[in-house]
Amino acid sequence: MRNSYLLMLLTTPLFAQHAAEAGGPSADAALKMLLDGNQRYAANRLTHSHQDAARRGEVAKGQHPFAAVLGCSDSRVPPEVVFDEGLGDLFTVRVAGNVATDDVVASLEYAVAHLGPKLIVVLGHERCGAVDATMKGGAPEGHLAALVDRIRPATDAVKGKPGDTLDLAVRQNVANVVKQLRATQPILAKDVASGAVKIVGARYDLDSGLVEILK
């Protein structure tokens, strides 16, 4: 019932009108803005734009983020910091292992239908604890089993491959989530097919601070 109501809400003409009014940069332009900001962050040349009282007052009237980011909950990878952005710039959804649960997908559907960003970035990161724990196996406690189940296809896919197995699994997990989102009906798949939205994967390096776009 909840998912049916959300779908009805997201596809009403009012939501479509809001998305159209939001405008904003193209997906490619938004990605360049993110990567330029990440270069500033990694080089310690932060501008800290859109973080003052004037911006707070501006976005209090409404928000039009130029990109959506699905990232890991890891405290070392806050998207607004690593991309040198501020209030109202990014619509962020964060969950351990940057997995796409129903609630995560619904949040991203809300963003593209109501707020207008044309870019979604799935941001994994070096030495992800959730991926590492999945690789190590064992019997996860509490609700952790649900998280592990979503990450396990990535860790299984890289078993026996040469190289840093954990990093390979991090990259594979991002690729799996990107593929899942691109195929998610009815909103994201339609927008991807029409070119209205682009979904890309990325990996954050904990040591250098740099974000790499994954192919």
Secondary structure topology:
Blueprint: H1 2-10, H2 13-22, H3 27-42, H4 53-60, E1 67-71, H5 79-82, E2 90-94, H6 102-115, E3 119-125, H7 129-136, H8 144-157, H9 165-182, H10 187-194, E4 198-204, E5 211-214
Parallel strand pairs: 1-2, 1-3, 3-4
Antiparallel strand pairs: 4-5
Helix pairs in contact: 2-6, 7-8, 8-9
Characterise the protein shown here.
By secondary structure, the protein is an alpha/beta fold. It is built from 10 helices and 5 strands, in the order ααααβαβαβααααββ. Helix 2 packs across helix 6 and helix 8 packs across helix 9 (165-182). The termini are far apart.
Q: Please state the CA-atom Rg, rounded to the nearest Å.
A: 18 Å
Strand content: 5-15%
Order of helices and strands: HHHHEHEHEHHHHEE
Fraction of residues in helix: 40-55%
Task: Sketch the major β-sheet.
Answer: 5 strands, mixed
Distance between the termini: 37 Å
Keywords summarizing the entry:
disordered N terminus; alpha/beta; 215 residues
In short:
The chain has ten helices and five strands. It has 215 residues and is α/β, with parallel strands linked by helices.
